[in-house]
Amino acid sequence: MKKIDVKLISGRSIEQGIHIENKMSSGYFDVAAVCELNEKDMSKLGIRDDANVMIKSKFGQVVVRARTNNRNPPGIAFVPMGPWANAIIDPSTGGCGTPQFKGVEVEVTLTFDSISPIKELVGFI
Amino acid sequence: MIITDVLCPFCGDLCDDIIVEVEGNKIIEVKEACETGVSKMMGHERIAAPMIRENGKLRETTYEEAITKAAEILTNSLRPLMYGWGSTTCEADKKGIELAEEIGAIIDNTTSVCHAPSVLAIQNVGLPSCTLGQIKNRADLIIYWGSNQAEAHPRHMSKYTSFTKGFFTKEGRKGKHVIVFDVRKTTTAEVADDFVQIIPGDDYRVLSALRVILAGAGDVVPSSVGGVPKEKLIEIVDRMKSSRFGVLFFGMGLTQSRGKPYNVANAISLVRELNAHTKFAVMPMRGHFNVTGFNQVCAWSTGFAFAVDFARGKPWYNPGETSTVDVLNRGECDSALIVASDPAAHFPRKSVEHLAKIPLIQIDPCPNLTTELADIVLPAAIAGIEVEGTAYRMDGVPLRLRKLIEPVHLSDEEILSRILSKVREIRGD
Amino acid sequence: MELLITNGIVYDPINQISGEKVDILVKDGKIVSGVKNPKTIDAGGRIVMPGGVDMHTHIAGGKMNVGRMLRPEDGRRCIESRKKLTRACTGYSVPNTFATGYRYAKMGYTTTFEPAMPPLLARHTHEEFRDIPIVDKGGIPLLDNHWLIMEYVKSGDMDKLTAFIAWMMNATKGYGIKIVNAGGGEAWGWGKNVRNLDDIVPNFDITPAEIIHGLAEANERLNLPHSIHIHCNNLGHPGNYDTTLATFDLVKDVTSHNRQVMHATHIQYHSYGGSTWADMHSKADAIASYVNSHDHVTVDPGQVMFGDTTTMTADGPMEYELHMMSKRKWTNKDVELETGSGIIPIFYSRKVSVNSIQWAIGLELALLIKSPWKTAITTDHPNGAPFTRYPEIISLLMSKKRREEVLKGVHSAINKRAIISSIDRELNWADIAIMTRASPAKILGLDKHGKGHLGIGADADIAIYDISPEEDDPRKIQSALSHAKYTIKGGEIVVKDGEIVAVPEGRTYWVNPEFDGEATKAMLEDLAVKFKEYYSVSLANYPVQDAYVPHPVEIKTRCKNAS
Asked: C314-357: per-residue pLDDT in tens?
């Protein structure tokens, strides 16, 4: 299986903001369970838009939908802030209260698993 | 009915020029606001009634029962945590802090996971800053660093910075230079004059290089720093020094990436040093519409801006120890009250795991991931739509939120007030 | 509730009572001439005074709160647990709001005025007022650097100027006119400053002298209870006493109704001779001599006490200079169209010549100004020291012996560059009663509204100190003033034996000047343009709503000579 090693950046997107107070909706699922990659990284993986990818870090793994976004340079995976990104980020704060939501090293691979359902991410339902 | 000069209760810009049309206690149109603001004000699914979890399922109940249960949980806890406060009024914050003091809780707000590093940096180096109107009227150099406000604060550029005209900035966009520092070419970067792409995690290095060049020691700077050519860095320093009024806004790109508080302290120090050459200001881009307000209320009533632990009967402040994610990661708190926030969605999974294990009380207008974990759910009226009250804009300007329609549910303040009375009743105070 | 305070040695200078045994009767929060069934407090020969009035203390609002956030290390000092009646307290120079109210009450103070309220942030000041228990409050808005003020002064349009100030008092629920480094705030918007009264404010073609004079005239036209309240230009610079004297002289020609036309605050910082820090010396004698020979100016010293504290002022460029000298952490906050501020921690050391001289100058001013009615006791809290140092300052003013003890340990420069060691005067209890209650109340114009005295109809704000007038041990004086035997606020006993026993909410004084006419209409049109084009908030959202002033005391004034 082809894989790439990239850095995960999570952050605000306008679509995520629109749905932030409506997280149980399909709209939120559509915009937050997403991983944006540069087209070069997409072709390294041999995938097109809407393929599912598994993102793994030291801290966990999650399945989201891939999407090309050339605003990202190669080597960066952007996942909107939210439960999908948080399944794989570094929870330690280094003594400042804030976890490292940006810059976590992750491995991305193509997967045929379905996108992680939101309730499963919280993991206790 | 048309209501003008409405405040938008979404982001830290706290726009106060929104026009809302109300018909039969329903908002039917929202003008002037950005997409996110319109979406919030037009409304979403709401929590219908107070709920209590029994045998794994939430069942509807009365406020009376849910509040009594909540008070019992908090009274019986040894280490309660009270977290959230991003999207409510200062009046609710005050009540929350009073409750925290009374039950010996740790009280903390969403600052903890966004600008805690900024608060720590400010404690070390200060913050030369100003109000947003000062920038609108004067700034000819605008820098956004690790902040994609085109998506997080959609009207920021048109109201306060790049695309606005002020007293000394009558030319508008033409007379301004806009630089974006980021690890990816965001939508904000697309409308900038300069986009400076930094290797993820190298912000600290780039800031240091700029400070070294500013200090006149550019000869020690290597040919490229953090992915940025030295010539570009020199050009930027020259531009900073020759601006009439510069401003550096920074966001999560600095606070949540490698270096965290040190990145911010470095950015503030750069701005501080620039003041020897010209006028320069720096400002954190605060997220929620009243995240700043909690810091204000918490500072004047406890002495500290966030992460205050009342276990000793007096405030103890030590972020990294008393901040929410740390408390959760240590598995330390034995109950939690979450107000106007969704930590289940926005905390690292490990922290959420502990939240799921302990009695959890939620006060919120809308169902979210935290609802899925909550044992007591108390639906609240929406601050700034159904409840009036105070909010502080990202620059510390306080404004009064409007009440646009009649609420069905109690306000956060009222719910907290009733919990506090109940706690006192249980303790026989 | 009715109270009878008997056997007290009363100092009530406004009513010419100076150390006499007089009964004080209280009913419904006021001093009355008769009571039926009072609770009796036997003062047992102890000193009784009206509640203390602090006319210049930075207790609330944006600056103080930024100070708290900047200095958690200060917040970790003086921590007190929550008690049955009282909230938890933190902080020494930047105390939380609860500590502020309790600590004033414990010293027998019942009225405190915040003298630097940025109009755009006035709502914040009032929010904090609400959380400062017990004491009454007032906030004085910063107006001198406001664009519209400068424009009206420049064009000489006194009617519009007056109309705008009247509007501002309403919009900010403010008490008077504060001037800070006139014109310097606007210049600081570009990183510049004005030093002298005749410097030109960039882009506004106006001088500090013109702004100060224009505001003094407008103040008197509006018949405000207080005069203009000024932090002179050139603060903290060697040789600045010239600027200070020239500032006093600027408003000689302005007439008022029976009070000063200028109150110059923290004058210690403005009484420096010399040309560099190496030859900086006291000019307290020159300043005092002016005040002694003129009746249009009152001053408060802004006493510096040794130790760590936090400086905070709307004088942004001055704070930057301090930062450049000490390199300590520095916060600045410019406020669009209006004003600015800066904050920096400071340590006043007795081993440093300048700090020792600063300490001396404050005392010299209080001792060299002959009439205590022309001054008041302040530290410009927290700039010179926190207000909790007042009892110590009073003991220094009352005891040459204590001053000499301190003088032994300070920098020797004080012998040549200050006057303090040559002054023998010791203030007496009557002087202290004037300088801590009667005089600040009169200077603020509050004496006519029941503050600063114990005459019939006055507010029943009373302090009883556990000391008799004969006692002259300065340490006992300090201790007695630190922990009032009783503090009574609005007729309610709030402190007994130095402990808080009740926590009523204080009231907020504000002035509502009546000013009608064409000028108001025209002014509002100008103002609308300022909001539409330049402010970052809407005009409709600017004025402080009534909700923020739950216990208002509105003082109405009538404008004279309105055309």
From this structure: 999 999 999 999 999 999 999 999 999 999 999 999 999 999 99
Q: What amino acid is encoded at B244 in this protein?
A: R
Is residue C188 one of the residues assigned to a domain?
yes
The answer as to whether C511 is a domain residue is no
State the nearest Cα–Cα gap between A88 and chain B, in angstroms: 8
- Residue that the structure tokens 């739509």 belong to: B385
Give A56-93 pLDDT, tens digit per residue.
999 999 999 999 999 999 999 999 999 999 999 999 99
B126, pLDDT greater than 60: yes
Query: Running DSSP on this structure, what letter comes out for residue C458?
Result: S
* Average pLDDT of the segment spanning C444-459: 98
Inter-chain Cβ pairs, chain A and chain B, closer than 8 A: 185
Q: Do B397 and C120 touch (CB under 8 A)?
A: yes
* Token pair recorded at residue C307: 């130790």
Number of independent structural domains in chain C: 1
3 state SS for C48-112: EEECEEECCCCCCCHHHHHHHHHCHHHHCCCCECCCCCCCCECCCCCCCHHHHHHHHHHCCEEEE
Chains B and A touch, contact meaning at least 3 pairs of CB atoms under 8 angstroms apart:
yes
Mark which residues 87-126 of C lie under 8 Å from B by CB.
87-91, 94-98, 120-121, 123-124
Map out the domains of chain B as residue ranges. 45-113+289-427, 116-284
The per-residue pLDDT for C561 is 59
- The verdict on a CB contact (< 8 Å) between B137 and C87 is no
What is the mean predicted confidence (pLDDT) over B115-143? 98
- Give the Cβ contact number of residue C16 at 10 Å: 7
Domain extent, residue C144, equals: 53-70+116-389+400-426
What amino acid occupies position C443? I
- How far from chain centre, in Å, is Cα A71? 16
Q: Retrieve residue C102's tokens.
A: 């309790």
Asked whether residue C448 is domain-assigned, the answer is no
Chain center to CA of C171:
21
C434 within some domain: no
CATH number for the domain whose boundaries are B116-284:
3.40.228.10
Which residues, 6 or more positions from B330, have their beta carbon under 8 angstroms from its beta carbon? Answer: none
Nearest to B149 by CA among B247, B74, B53, B65: B247
3-state secondary structure of C34: coil
Separation between Cα atoms, residue A110 and residue A52, nearest integer Å:
6
CATH number of B45-113+289-427: 3.40.50.740
Angle at C500 between CA C496 and CA C503, to 5 degrees: 120
Beta strands at C486-489 and C342-348: parallel, antiparallel or unpaired: unpaired
Please report, as a single letter, which amino acid is at residue C251: V
Q: Which residues contact C30 (CB under 8 A, 6 or more apart)?
A: C450, C457, C458, C459, C460, C491
> What pLDDT, on the 0 to 100 scale, is given for residue A120?
82
Q: Name the minimum distance, in Å, from the CA of B57 to any CA of chain A.
A: 10
CATH topology identical between B45-113+289-427 and B116-284: no
Identify the residue among B3, B278, B397 best suited for mutation to test binding to C, counting C beta carbons within 10 A and taking the highest. Answer: B397
pLDDT above 70 for A123: no
Q: Domains (ranges, CATH) in chain A?
A: 3-119 (2.40.40.20)
